[in-house]
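Supplementary notes for students who missed Thursday's class. We covered one full example, reproduced here. Read the sequence, then the structure, then the short commentary at the end.
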Amino acid sequence: MLYTLIGTGGTIDKTYNEYDGSLKNYASIMSQIVSSLRLPDVEVVQQNIIFKDSLEMNDEDREIIMKVCRQAMKSSDAVVVLHGTDTLEISGEFVHRSLPEPACPIIFTGAMRPFIFKDTDALQNVTEAFLAGRILKPGVYCVMHNKVLSFPGVRKDRKNLTFYNVNE
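Structure (token representation):
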């Protein structure tokens, strides 16, 4: 299987700066995530396209994400987008509207805690996204916290720090 893994920044990708105590999107840690997984029959093409907290994203960034997804669908069995959770629902809806008949699953995932944190949910969410890419039909999804949610209607549950679908 061939996956395209698209990095956009967000909490999953944040790293700690010892000098000033900040937690920011300095550089992608996508390769670290992929190398920590056992994927014997999967080829992963990694594309880091944006390094932003999702609260800083705008429609131009979403247009870039959509275009990269459109291009990746031409050769991939699944596309996984690592995205910040604060505006994941906005970007997912944008891609869903822009690509109404995707050629493969397009899966948005992220983390409530950075990958570098001991109690991160990042590895679980990426693992689930990769598995979902094997079994889902073409469409746009959010895969996190043992849930597969189809767009449209995905929303962040800020109280319980997870996602749900208003249509289900």
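Commentary. Strands lie at 2-9, 15-17, 22-24, 43-52, 78-82, 105-109, 139-144, 147-150, 154-157, 162-165. DSSP finds four helices and ten strands in the chain. If anything here is unclear, bring it to office hours.
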